[in-house]
Design brief:
The complex is a heterodimer of chains A (about 80) and B (about 160). By secondary structure, chain A is an alpha+beta fold. Chain A has 2 helices and 5 strands. With about 160 residues, chain B is of the alpha+beta class. In chain B, the strands form 2 sheets. In chain B, strands 3, 4, 6, 8 and 9 form a 5-stranded antiparallel beta sheet that branches. The chains are: A alpha+beta (about 80), B alpha+beta (about 160).
Chain lengths: ~80, ~160
């Protein structure tokens, strides 16, 4: 199982703060495409991903038990 | 020296004095503090209040990473950073950064470096409540997000 975390705009768009899915083996980019298609999220091109709290490249392959956070452009400070 | 967490995301009001205490040391001749506050007017738009949301664990980890970068650039600087989450009113402190160093130049420079890096890599988001609506800030209308697909590793990578 992979846990996906949503924040800010994405959280409001999908209507929840997390989602558990059986998608180990997908890359980060493939997961984003799947979310756009299956959950109707607007383009995630500008959205970064973190795997287990570290920024990840789109080519990173997701493993069982990973936590993936989708990180829209940040605006702290 | 204060043993509390030096890099913290909290939903409580920030005590500037407390953040300063975390970097106070006998060998220092300078402490700079930066306080980021909630601004009422931006480009003529009136803000009523702000809401900050964080991916807390990762945000604290990224604050510690920024400190690591600071240590590489200014080995004699010591920093502490607290960022607030939740609902904030006008003039409330959203972030407090304290940096101490033996001489003032380092404390000024490292402090500015930290706030710039916070705005690049720390997973915290601001929602503006204006008098005519609300929106999460950080969308492509506000700034160019990550031209290289991910946040730059260092401030001078662009």
């Amino acid at each position: 199982m992979i846990k996906i975390l949503f924040f800010a705009r994405l959280q409001e768009e999908i209507g929840k703060d997390s989602l558990n899915i059986e998608k180990a083996g997908l890359t980060v980019d493939q997961l984003k495409q799947w979310l756009e298609k299956e959950h109707g999220l607007q383009s995630l091109d500008q959205t970064m991903a973190a795997v287990n709290e570290d920024y990840a490249d789109g080519s990173e392959v997701l493993k069982e038990g990973d936590t993936v956070a989708l990180i829209p452009p940040v605006s702290g400070g | 020296m204060n043993k509390e967490k030096r890099f913290e995301v909290t939903d409580h009001p920030i005590s500037t004095e407390n953040v300063i205490q975390k970097v106070t040391r006998r060998e220092c001749g300078a402490i700079t503090t930066f306080i980021g506050t909630v601004r009422e007017f931006t480009d003529g738009k009136r803000t009523l209040r702000l809401e900050y949301q964080a991916y807390k664990d990762m945000a604290e980890k990224m604050l510690a990473q920024i400190d690591k970068e600071v240590q590489e650039k200014w080995p004699d600087a010591r920093s502490a950073i607290t960022h607030r989450t939740g609902t904030l009113d006008i003039s409330d402190a959203a972030v407090v950064i304290a940096v101490s160093s033996p001489h003032r130049k380092t404390a000024y420079e490292a402090n500015e470096y930290i706030i710039e890096r916070i705005k690049q890599i720390v997973p915290i988001w601001k929602k503006e409540y204006w008098d005519d609506g609300s929106a999460w800030i950080g969308d492509q209308l506000e700034k160019t997000p990550y031209p290289k697909g991910k946040p730059p590793k260092g401030a001078n990578d662009d």
